Automatic annotation (TrEMBL), chain A:
Taxonomic lineage from the root: Eukaryota, Sar, Stramenopiles, Ochrophyta, Bacillariophyta
Family the entry assigns: Belongs to the cyclin family.
Pfam families: Cyclin_N (PF00134)
Domain of life per record: Eukaryota
Protein name, entry field: Cyclin family protein
Species this protein is from: Skeletonema marinoi
Keyword Translocase attributed: no
Automatic annotation (TrEMBL), chain B:
Source organism: Skeletonema marinoi
Coiled coil regions in record: none
Keyword annotations from UniProtKB, A to Z: ATP-binding, Kinase, Nucleotide-binding, Serine/threonine-protein kinase, Transferase
Name this protein carries in UniProt: Cyclin-dependent kinase 2 homolog
Entry's family note: Belongs to the protein kinase superfamily. CMGC Ser/Thr protein kinase family. CDC2/CDKX subfamily.
Amino acid sequence: MTKPDSDDLFSIFRLSTSDLVDQTLVLLKQEENPHYKCRDYLRNGSSSSSSRSRVSAEARAKVARWLADIVDYFSLQRQTVAMAMSYVDIFLSLRNVRAASEARRSVTKFQLLALVCLSIATKSLEVAHLDVETLVTASQGCYCADDIREMEIVVLNALQWRLCAPTSLPIAHRAIALLTKVVPRLANGANKHNSITSCL
Amino acid sequence: MPKADRWSSDEEEIVLLSLLPKPISHLDEGTYGVVWKARDNATQEIVAIKQIKFDSDMTKEGFPISALREIGVLLSLSHESIVSVREMVVGSTPDKVFMVMDCFEMDLQAAMKKGPGASTPFAQSEVKYMMRQILSAMAHVTSIARKYEHPARNMTQMVVTLWYRAPELLFSESCYGPEIDTWSIGCIFGELLIKEAILKGTGELDQIQKIFKLLGTPTDDEYWEQLWSKQGSTFKWKNNDSDLARTFAVNSFSATGQSYLSPDGFDLLSRLLSLNPKKRITAEDALRHSYFSCGVTEQVPMFYV
């Protein structure tokens, strides 16, 4: 993967150590923001079988790969997938939202959620956007345009429009840049940092 | 999720507020939306509710990108001089989206026109107080925007109310940064001094003419020469010298209807209203300007009391 990222890696590596530390702290602090709180919904301890999550780690990974395929096809950034998955996780963590418990129980709803989150992430991060028709095609007809539009407003409302969710990628980039400053020996290895972009 | 009946709004109490002075055209009304005053039935607090307006054809692609980004930015701002968004509420249908904000009694324009002592100019100390608030809020916005910078900001030129629009936007420059906002702040500075908008154009062309009349036509300016040659413009603008010093009297107590303006204040005004956006002062630098560190100390304006 050599696709350009939303973080311009070249400029990150040229930042001063104190700038890097500052930026990393800001990013880490973002994770503590209550609006972006996440719980481990994959292994929830709910006793009643009706409310147990059917979303498994495998299903989540599969959906992330699907989104990455869409993003690659349209030459968008992988960071957009990371952001979309962050929305998915925050949404599924919500306890008192009906659509969230539906998405935890039904694979169809879960996939729709992922697709809609990709659309929202694209709108907030990318210059180009995926139109609703494209999303319908990507779902191979599983969902119609109205399903997508309706789900979008539900997700936006549930996330309370907080769309600058934290993702691991920008933190990883800064961590590597920091390491190469502290341990110059690693600098050569840092040229391989692009491989990180492909691990989500 | 908040219920729609949490807020009650008395029909008669509905007040039309707008963040910037009155929308001029229908399009502007669309960008700002209408704001109601309402009571939060849970806390009894008075809040302002702004409906995000959009056309039905805009919702074909779901929630409009521009509104989505505007909300995202507003939610990430937190500054004592910026109105804070408390929460977002969706009404009965998806096209009814509301922003619940802190409510203020009046906006700046209402304060200028209706506040106590509306007929007399502001004291220099009051102008200074308001300018610092505006500039520090803008510096905060700029620092946040840098953090969430998007790869390309492909926006239209119709982004700022005409009277406050920077000259480069009027020449369809589509790529811009915080300089367009400091231009607007310069316009507001002038307006605070004379309690009237300083560049009241009737259309885009007239707006350009008014700008060049006040500040002089940019001859021998690298930026404008480049922009005009890039656009292949052959149009010749009437050559004017800057009228700024004559419009805003410095060190004068007798200037009718104008607040007292120190030489430092005039210098700041001319740097904010620099025709060349590359030479325009930034909000951060403006806060460090001698206007704020020298001369009379700031004072909370009368209408706050």
